[in-house]
Each structure stands twice: as C-alpha cells, then as structure tokens.
Amino acid sequence: MRRRITNWVMTGLCGLALLVALVPLGSLLWLVISHGLAGLSPDFFTAVPAPVGETGGGVGNAIVGTLYIVAIACAVGVPLGVGAGVYLAERGDTRLGDAVRFTAEVLSGVPSIVVGIVAYGLVVLSMRRFSALAGGMALAVLMVPTLARSTEELVRLVPGTLREASLALGVSQWRTSLMVVLRTALGGIMTAILLAVARAAGETAPLLFTSLNNQYWNWRADQPTASLTVQIFNYAVAPYQDWHDKAWSAALVLLLLVGALSLAGRLASRSRLR
Amino acid sequence: MTSAVALVLAVPVSLGLALFLTEMAPPALRSIVSFPISLLAGIPSVVYGLWGLFVLVPLLRNPVEPFLARTLGFLPLFQGAPIGLGYLAAGVVLAIMILPTITSIAIEVLQTVPGSLREAALALGATRWEAICTAVLPYSRAGIVGATMLGLGRALGETMAVTMVIGNSPTIRASLFAPGYSLPAVIANEFAEASGDLHTGALAALGLLLFAVTVLLNVVARLLVRLSRRGPARVAA
Question: Cα B234 to chain center, whole Å?
Fold first, then answer.
C-alpha cells in the first residue's frame, strides 16, 4: 500500500512539473499580447522614437534595423554555415572533419555576449565606430555553428545512389555536391536557415556594443543602427511608463516576427517531407 | 550564484517533466506538450527580461520574499529587504529559460533506455515509480548530469534577462534578495561606455573567463551525453 501511494504521489509530482513549466509560458504570452496590442498603431511601425519626455513615436527604425542587421548576418553566415555543413557531410570523415564538428558543437554553447566582444574587437575597433556591419557579423558567428551542424545532418540523408548516379554521368564532384546533393536537401536546409534567422533576430547581447542604437532612420552599414531587441531593453529599464508600454508592444512585434520565421521554417520542412 | 538558484529550481522541474513525458504520459499528450516547450525555448531572452522585470519582480517583492523571510528568515540566505530585484529574481528567470534545454536533452537520454530494462523491473512487481528509480534513472544518470551541465552553461552565459532583473550592484551579499551582478551583466552594462583601454581590457578579460568556463562545461557535458547515448556499461562505474 505504501509503495502504491508513493507511486501515485510521484506521478502527481511529475505531472505538477508540467503545470509549473506551462504557467510562466502562459503568463508571458498573455501579458505580451494583452499589453502589447494596446500600443500598436500605424505610428508605432512607421515613426522614429520620440525624444525623452514626449509621448508618441514608434519603433519603425528599430524594426527596419533588425531586418537590416539580420540580412547582413545572413549574407555572411548562411554561405559559411551551409558550406561548412556540406563539407562535413561530403568530405568530413577525417580528423579535420571531427575537429571542425566538435568545435562547432562547443561554439554553439558559447555565450552570445562573448561573441559580441569578438565582433567588437574585430570590426568595431578596426572601423573605429559602432555599425550595423559589426552587429551583423556577431549574429553571423552565432548562426554558423548551428547551421553547419544541421546542414551536415540533412546532406547525409541524401541517398548515396543519387550522388553515384551523378558522378557516373561524368559530372564533376563539385557540381554533384552543388547541383544534386544540395538541391535534394534544399527544403530541410531552408528550414534550418529560417530557424537560425529566427534565433538571430531575437538576440540582444551581441548587439549592445556592436550595432549600438540609433534614434533615427539609418540606411548605411557603417553607422550605428537601432534594433528591436536593444530598443526593448532600453525601454524596459527606463523609468517612464510610456516607454514600458512601448517595450511591451515591441516585444509583441518581435515575438510575431520570430514566431512567423520559425513557423515558416517548420512548414518548409513539412511540405518537403510529403 | 544566480545559476545555482536556477539549477536548484529548474532541475527537479525539468527532470519531473521529462520523466512524466517519457514514462507516464500517453503519447498523444507528449506531442501536444512538446510544442509549448519548444516555444518556450524560442522566445528571445530580452522578452523574458521584460516579463521578469514587470511581472516577476513585483510578485517577488510583495508576497514571495516577505513570506520566505518570515518562515526561513533564520538562514542568512533569506534575510534583507525584499526589493524584488536581485539574485532570486535572476535565478527564477534563468530557471524558466533553461528548463526547455534540460528537458529536451533529458527526454532524449531517457528514450535511449532499453524497454526491456523497464519491463524487467515491472515484471518483478515494482510499481512504475520504483521501476523509474531502480532501472531508468541509474541507466541514464550520466546523460542527465550532462543535460544539467548544458543547462548550467546556458544559464552562465545568459545576459539580457539577468541584466534586467539582477539589480546591477557590484557587491557580494549572502542574501538571495540582494541585488548583485553577474559576469555577462557587467559586460553588457559597461562595455559600450567603457572609457580607455584598461576598462575595455578588463571587460574583455571577464569575457575570456566566461568563455573558458562555458567551453569547459560544454565539452564535459557533450562527452557525458555522448557516452550515455552509447550505453551504460562504461558509465555505470
């Protein structure tokens, strides 16, 4: 009897763990949506932030800035990550391949703020100013390891017969990799890219001292640039109620952006599987 | 310090969750629940910080911390003014953030436990909980430790959420209620305004320290998880 009661109690506790895990999630989503919706207006998406002390204004430049920085990160990170992944899958069964794989694994566990310091040292110091380029570089470094690992796994799934058929037709190795193998795995790789982009768009720490912030519209890669995440941070720690409301709305926009990206990623792989 | 609080809170919950999902829950529930858990992992950290600052901190300041101080006030851990911002808030936010990491890896590890082991224990008349205690957990011990260490690695490096709720005060106190500082928070707050090479250098050195610690943790954790995936024979000793 005592044993049975223990069994029940422990099962109950484990079920309780589930509830405990879901409560913060529910609370977070609910608050972001309920607080955030109130502040959404056309102005919010198109205007630049209002000066301190004035109400109104928006985060249009931050939304554009985030997209801008993430685009730079993609331009740098995607070719590198996918290329490394293809290499690992096609030619990676060597000592070097193992080393690269392990490095990528460890690199993906490095705190993003450390990556920010690296980007500061490499880009900001040499350019002598904070810039969107530096932020994009930092995010690119964050994207590469995860992208390389998932590309490798996806490329390995491509049947060997496809590869052999292509080689047997006299197609050179590099064209086989590019035209046949990569193409077959493309759906999955798109998913991996979208998920990596979603992660990058949500990063704050590496942007704090690389792309910094900007109160105005900016279209130049060598200038400080606003981003949604840094803007949320600044608004949240400031002592103004109006800014707090803006922070919630910006958080809602960010969540929608990140959610849409990862949803698109999941759909891309699902349609491919069928 | 904050990471320790986070681990104390997160490990039992995520382990319970992983056990519940792999051993007890019907498969249908499992696929329903795995979605919100992955959602939890995908939320940007600055949004967690926002939530922590405006929801958790007031909650801690009013009912939770005075209650802890009244009931457990004889411990130095629970003394001091309940201002909300501080180690405890940072620990709780971190716990929520590393929960999905630990849970998903623990689930992965638990799924490698052969069904025959479980069935053998059940056939000997063990209840389901006893089967978990005697057969499942010992088998997957190394992997679970590895999962915990990966969670710790994430907690140590987490910047934004902690910066927003820890209170940012360069002091060391025993109380969980006191504001403090963490490595990434110092870097986040001071780097952009660092004046002179010395200040920047010092902050970069903090970054190096953080980097070294997390790399070490990650290497060990990955090896542990990899070992336990291969089987328990070598790990059991």
Answer: 27
Separation CA B199–CA A235 (nearest Å): 26
**Does residue B145 belong to the interface with chain A, where contact is any CB pair within 8 Å?**
no
Q: Is the ipTM of this complex over 0.85?
A: no
Among A10, A115, A122, A240, the residue to mutate for chain B (most B Cβ within 10 A): A10
Closest residue, chain B, to A260 (C-alpha) = B42
Structural element, H or E, at residue A83: helix A60-91
The range of the structural domain enclosing residue A224 comes to: 58-160+167-273
Place of tokens 């005060």: B169
- Distance, in Å, from the CA atom of B165 to the CA atom of A62, rounded to the nearest integer, reads 23
Burial of A123-151, coded b for 16+ CB within 10 Å and e otherwise, reads: bbeeeeebbbbbbbbbbbbbbbbbbbbbb
Domain coordinates of chain B in residue numbers? 2-230
Domains contained in chain A, number:
1
Binned at pLDDT 50, 70 and 90, residue B1 comes out as low
Q: Name the residue in chain B with its Cα closest to that of A243.
A: B50
Q: Residue B44 above 60 pLDDT? A: yes
Q: Which of A3-12, B73-82, B203-212 has the lowest mean pLDDT?
A: B73-82
In SS3 terms, B112-155 reads as CCCHHHHHHHHHCCCCHHHHHHHHHHHHCHHHHHHHHHHHHHHH
Residue A117 with chain B: CB contacts under 8 Å: 187, 191, 203-204, 207
Whole-angstrom distance, CA of residue B71 vs CA of residue B51: 27
In-domain check, residue A38: no
CATH number of the domain bearing residue A258:
1.10.3720.10
Whole-number Å distance between alpha carbons of A127 and A211: 12
List chain A residues with pLDDT less than 70.
Answer: 50-57, 221, 269-274
Quick one: how many helices (H) and strands (E) in chain B?
13, 0
Question: Do the chains contact at A6 and B127, CB–CB below 8 Å?
Answer: yes
The dihedral built from the CA positions of residue B98, B8, B18 and B59, taken in this order, carries a sign that is negative
Q: What is the pLDDT of residues A108-127, one digit of tens each?
A: 878 888 888 888 888 777 77
Listed in sequence order, the residues at least 6 apart from B190 whose beta carbon sits closer than 8 Å to its beta carbon are B199, B203
* Interchain CB contacts (distance < 8 Å): A and B: 182
User: Mind telling me how many Å the CA of A169 is from chain B's nearest CA?
Assistant: 40
Superfamily of domain B2-230, CATH level 4: MetI-like (1.10.3720.10)
Identify whether A36 is part of a domain: no
